[in-house]
Amino acid sequence: MFKKLIIINIFFLIFTYSYSEEQKIVYLNVDKIMQQSKAGKSIKKQLENLYEENLEKFKKNDEILKNKEKKIIAQKNILSKEDFQKELTNLRSEIINFQKEQVKAREDINKLRIGATNKLILKLSPILQEYAKKNSISLILQKKNIVMGKKEIEITDEILAITDKEINNIKIN
Q1: N or C: which end of the chain has fewer CB within 10 A?
Q2: Is the pLDDT of residue 9 over 80?
């Protein structure tokens, strides 16, 4: 009985070893594709433009609020105590609304970034499937999940070239 068990284990190990040699495993740096592809650069540029527009708008609003504050402080001795408190309360509520707008704008930009990244990944998926099919690849891993691997099995530059041919830009909105 013991001999049969040893023979079965040896057969199983040999079969498993030979099967694993036939599988082709490669890895891909998705972050590099997101940063260096034409589509990734397009996303980044659109987000930067949106950020700059928001920044300009918020600088103007900030300046308006500072001027209102200076005006209220200058009128402190002229206004009655109740009117002064009323003006101060109105200014505080405007400041709170301004801060809420800033937070919402940041959240909106983050949502757009996530949505655009997902769009790029969805468009990248068929490219990877086709590449894997043509090159008989069994498994594609992300580079960030790899501790160490041979440079020869990295396919990032090849996928980057294919991506640049097939996907030029992605609209964020």
Answers
A1: N
A2: no
In a domain, 135, yes or no: yes
Q: Would 133 be classed as within a structural domain?
A: yes
Element (H, E) at 139: strand 139-142
Decide if pLDDT at 96 tops 60: yes
What is the pTM (predicted TM-score) of this model? 0.72
CATH of the domain at 152: 3.30.910.20
Q: How far apart are the first and last CA of the chain?
A: 69
Are the CB atoms for 138 and 24 separated by under 8 Å?
yes
Domain that holds residue 139: 24-166
pLDDT at residue 18 greater than cutoff 50: no
**Number of domains the chain contains:** 1
- Distance of alpha carbon 140 from alpha carbon 156, whole angstroms: 11
- Secondary structure letter of residue 148 according to DSSP: -
Q: Residue 80: CB partners within 8 Å, gap ≥ 6?
A: none
Burial of 156 (0-12, 13-18, 19+ CB in 10 A): middle
163 close to 36: Cβ distance less than 8 angstroms: no
Report pLDDT for 42: 92
Asked whether residue 15 is domain-assigned, the answer is no
**Predicted pLDDT at 110:** 93
